Fold this protein.
Amino acid sequence: MVVNCLRGFEFLGDWALYYFNLTGRMGLFMLRAVIATIVPPYKWEPLVNQIHFIGAKSLFVIIFTGAFTGMVLGLQGYYSLSQFGSESALGSAIGLSLVRELGPVLTALMVTGRAGSAICAEIGIMRNTEQIDALECMAIDPFKFLIAPKLVAAIISLPILAAFFNVVGILGGYLIAVPVLGVNEGAYFQGMYQSVIWDDLYMGLVKSLAFAIIIIGICASKGFYVHLDRAGGFGAEGVSRVTTSAVVFSSVAILVGDYLITAILL
Amino acid sequence: MTEQRDPIIRLVEIEKSFGTQKVLRKASLDIRTGKATVIVGGSGQGKSVLLKHMLGLLKPDNGQVLIHGKDISRMKKNELMEVRRDIGVLFQSSALFDSITVYENVALPLRERTKLKEAEIGRIVKEKLALMDLHGVEEKYPAQLSGGMRKRVGLARALVLDPKIVFLDEPTTGLDVKRSEEIYKLFHHTQRKLGYTSVIVSHDAPKIFKLADYVALVADGKIQECLPPEDFQTSENPYVKAFIQATMGEIYRGEGESL
Ligand SMILES: Nc1ncnc2c1ncn2[C@@H]1O[C@H](COP(=O)(O)OP(=O)(O)O)[C@@H](O)[C@H]1O
Ligand SMILES: [Mg+2]
């Protein structure tokens, strides 16, 4: 009984130490990434490539999910609001949900799944096949060479992707609300126009920027330190395990971050 | 060649464990300026680990790695970068960047570390690839090459900046006999000409002895001997004797007890 109790503490301590270690490592990783990003020289070509990969290539999936999210919001919002006879508020409800919450959050989750996983796997493989060692031996800073372009690309891409998500979502909601459910067109856009203010856009932007940092910080550092990770280790299997854990960790962090930012900025 | 300068790299009583496995136990080795030091030893004895200590990629649990007399673990990041500017490395796994082409792999050190124009970079890359007898592979990706070709691309990349110290981890493993002999001749020739320092891990004993100034044997976590090849072959050290017997035995098709 006592032994079992002690085991419990030991387990708890292990767990705490592991996450303490992990978050410390990620924090230092981000610090080095930011420094490497700020210090010149700057190269444009890798940045453009990364924007293409993280941003442009995510566009289709963002538009797709944005459209369906807007349509669902249209249906659900109409159902809820009609209970109080306030269908005319549908436009503002959809606009606010998208701009403040769903746009940044769902965009970040999609980018985590599409680009974050790929980034983690790519960097993890580079670590496990000594490519990162090779960079260091060539006196090329891996943070400058590998991480900085990804960080900047994510910071540029996420707000833009979220904006696309919002626009398409609003149109998707419109498609359901006006032609299908018969909400007045003027009321839909007028309500939205009046209730979505700059503060809401600002909150959406802050979230997108924070999520960009979360995605790169977690996915890239998990790959970069695959050899130190409990889930990681050597070989292809280590990379696959660490990629899974990076996606889960990043998704959870996005949702927690969303709550924190909302709570602080509200 | 005339004056006996301080060893450019000194490993002083290096100890290194991975988990419970003790790989190095007080291994000491001097690498002399302008000379070719060949490291031999059985598979899994810690040759690559030794090399990674000299490169500052692994930190010893105990002991020191001195480069130009300075402890590498005390060096700042900038200092280490400075040291690494003068070195070229071929990893055992070649460690080519697999997302870029062969051409870009070899061009990378030139692009990142020099201000050369693209035309000049192209000329140097072509020249180094030709030196390694690689033709028409510029636009291929590393995964599309055979192991031996990857090794040679790795060699071209290691030598592209004409480094002062060259680290080669099994440069000829996976190459056919003729090609590896050509590569050894090339090393011999360029080393005499350019006078760089080289540290070569090789399984190719006794052939490699021809190009070695010093041969060092890693066994049982230590450097057993580090001697000129003639002295190495007549050493009384039991590990060295066993090694010589095993490798020579191969030639005479004897039993050849392995290390
Ligand atoms: N990063 C590492 N983590 C754990 N064990 C390692 C690591 N690198 C090497 N080893 C172990 O150290 C021993 C020596 O490896 P190595 O230096 O690669 O041998 P070799 O002499 O064939 O080059 C091996 O048993 C290997 O498993
Ligand atoms: Mg090895």
User: Anything to note?
Assistant: The longest helix of chain B spans residues 177-194. The two ends of chain B are 34 Å apart (CA to CA). Chain B has two domains: 1-86+191-249, 90-162. Confidence is low (pLDDT under 50) at residues 253-259 of chain B.
